[in-house]
Automatic annotation (TrEMBL), chain A:
It comes from Paracraurococcus ruber. The keyword Oxidoreductase does not apply. The keyword Iron applies. Residues 16-120 form the Cytochrome c domain. InterPro entries: Cyt_c-like_dom, Cyt_c-like_dom_sf, Thiosulf_SoxX. This is Sulfur oxidation c-type cytochrome SoxX. Coiled coil: none annotated.
UniProtKB/TrEMBL annotation, chain B:
It is an enzyme of class 2 (transferase). It is found in: Periplasm. Belongs to the SoxA family. It catalyses: S-sulfanyl-L-cysteinyl-[SoxY protein] + thiosulfate + 2 Fe(III)-[cytochrome c] = S-(2-sulfodisulfanyl)-L-cysteinyl-[SoxY protein] + 2 Fe(II)-[cytochrome c] + 2 H(+); L-cysteinyl-[SoxY protein] + thiosulfate + 2 Fe(III)-[cytochrome c] = S-sulfosulfanyl-L-cysteinyl-[SoxY protein] + 2 Fe(II)-[cytochrome c] + 2 H(+). Its main location: periplasm. This is L-cysteine S-thiosulfotransferase subunit SoxA. Transmembrane segments: none annotated. Heterodimer of SoxA and SoxX. InterPro entries: Cyt_c-like_dom, Cyt_c-like_dom_sf, SoxA. Pfam families: SoxA-TsdA_cyt-c. Keywords: Electron transport, Heme, Iron, Metal-binding, Periplasm, Signal, Transferase, Transport. The gene is soxA. The lineage of its organism: Bacteria, Pseudomonadati, Pseudomonadota, Alphaproteobacteria, Acetobacterales. It comes from Paracraurococcus ruber. Coiled coil: none annotated.
Length: 121, 250
């Protein structure tokens, strides 16, 4: 499913829902994105600065490129600190409650990708 | 700690901090979590009358007398002890942390029932003993090379569902913001300490458990040797920082 630096096809075969994706990105228990990233979310008080801003992500990257970065960024940068949201490969000492569970479901990944694609500037 | 003593202790302590501050300006060495706190929190830590950790220290002083510790030890003889812990336990030839030593005295030398590690009595006794070393530089026990090696391996190992190592936050990203929290260098020199988020005094093991659970990894069981190994490495990594017990942290 990986082609170059992208996963061109939807993981579910259907397009995601950008509004649901936005909620996931802002949710500190589910997406966790704002732990590390800032973005164009003026209402959110605490945003991280461990990673590039999500502003303009949809202009810099295609949906396929965004999808691979969500699924498993280690494919592009083995040392990345960004968690692989759709892979449990190589994880160690995972807490009992999280064992063998991906961070997000295929549907949720598609929702987040759809939302990131709307971040054009 | 009678009532006239804290003032003297405090000025000595402030002098020592000023020295550490001067070293920091030269860019040398590790940086205590104290240095990156707001001025309000630093003032709260510096003033014994506003530092809520001092209540636990006073409670620990009372327990030290009431629970029979003073039958074998004096408070004065406790000065410097915390600065060189964890240490090698002669009997078991294994590393032991300060609370572990206190538990050992209580259970083996006094034949009394164990105190829960995170319970208020053990925290207070540990805080009282560690407070006797406030202002002294950490001096890692040279006999703990093997534990330090294990601790460093744990520190560098990626773990949990988020697949992050301690080093990725505390070496590579210290000073940056994880959402609202400033990531400190992760030094163990203030424990037990009063954390505003906990609204209570807490141990280093509690702090480490929070970081382990934060990356969705399985924490070590309470009292596990892994914590002592991590602490042995953290203390060596923090070499030269001054004991701050009881510190304040956000
Ligand atoms: C623990 C830190 C962390 C978390 C949590 C995290 N990221 Fe990232 N992310 C990074 C870092 C660091 C990079 C930079 C690329 C690299 O490290 O290879 C990155 C890169 C990206 C990129 C590519 C940006 C670009 O312009 O090239 C996107 C898009 C992205 N992240 C989206 C997300 C989303 C959406 C979430 C949450 C669902 C998220 N990230 C969670 C750390 C994180
Ligand atoms: C019956 C005597 C006795 C009593 C009572 C006792 N201890 Fe000890 N304690 C010792 C001895 C002996 C050692 C040295 C152990 C060793 O080095 O192997 C020690 C060591 C220690 C140390 C480490 C000192 C160092 O230099 O490394 C601390 C801290 C300590 N005790 C605290 C306490 C506290 C707190 C209590 C009360 C809860 C207590 N002890 C009760 C005999 C006692
Ligand atoms: C995802 C980032 C992250 C990881 C991974 C992490 N920590 Fe932390 N750690 C923090 C943050 C943030 C704080 C400060 C908490 C606060 O102020 O809210 C902290 C605090 C600490 C402190 C307290 C420092 C002080 O000044 O009191 C220690 C010690 C520590 N961490 C050690 C560790 C160890 C050991 C590990 C690995 C087992 C680890 N951390 C993993 C983010 C992390």
């Amino acid at each position: 499913m990986v082609a170059g630096d992208a996963i061109p096809g939807s993981l579910t075969g259907a397009p995601g829902d950008a509004a649901r994706g936005r909620a996931i990105v802002l949710d500190r228990q589910r997406g966790l994105c704002l732990l590390c990233h800032a973005g164009p979310f003026p209402e959110e008080r605490f945003q991280g600065d461990l990673a590039p801003s999500l502003a303009g992500a949809g202009a810099r990257l295609s949906e396929g490129q965004l999808r691979l970065r969500m699924v498993d960024g280690r494919r592009l940068n083995p040392d990345t600190i960004m968690p692989a949201y759709f892979s449990t490969e190589g994880l160690r000492h995972v807490g009992r409650a999280w064992q063998d569970r991906r961070l997000l479901t295929a549907e949720e990944i598609e929702d987040v990708v759809a939302f990131l694609a709307t971040l054009r500037d | 700690m009678g009532s006239p003593r804290p003032r003297r202790g405090r000025s000595r302590w402030l002098e020592a901090l000023a020295c550490a501050g001067a070293l920091l300006l030269l860019g040398a060495g590790p940086r205590s979590g104290y240095e990156t706190m707001t001025p309000q929190l630093r003032a709260m830590q510096d003033d014994d009358l506003s530092n809520p950790g001092m209540l636990a220290v006073a409670e620990g002083e009372a327990l030290f007398a009431r629970e029979g510790c003073a039958g074998c030890h004096t408070a004065e003889a406790m000065r410097g002890v915390a600065a060189r812990y964890p240490a090698l336990d002669r009997a078991s030839q294994a590393p032991i942390d300060l609370s572990g030593r206190i538990a050992q005295c209580r259970e083996k030398r006094q034949q009394r029932p164990p105190l829960p590690r995170e319970g208020p009595a053990m925290l207070a006794l540990t805080a009282f003993v560690a407070h006797q070393s406030r202002g002294l530089p950490l001096q890692p026990d040279p006999r703990l090379a093997e534990a330090r090696r294990q601790g460093e391996a744990l520190f560098r190992e990626r773990r949990g569902q988020l697949n992050l190592s301690c080093a990725q936050c505390h070496d590579d990203n210290a000073g940056r913001r994880l959402a609202g929290s400033l990531i400190p260098e992760g030094h163990p020199n203030g424990y037990p300490l009063y954390r505003l988020e906990w609204q209570a005094l807490g141990s280093l093991q509690r702090r480490l458990r929070n970081c382990l659970v934060g990356v969705r990894s399985e924490p070590f069981p309470p009292g596990a040797p892994d914590y002592v190994a991590l602490e042995a490495y953290l203390v060596a990594r923090a070499r030269g920082l001054l004991v701050e017990t009881p510190a304040i942290r956000p």
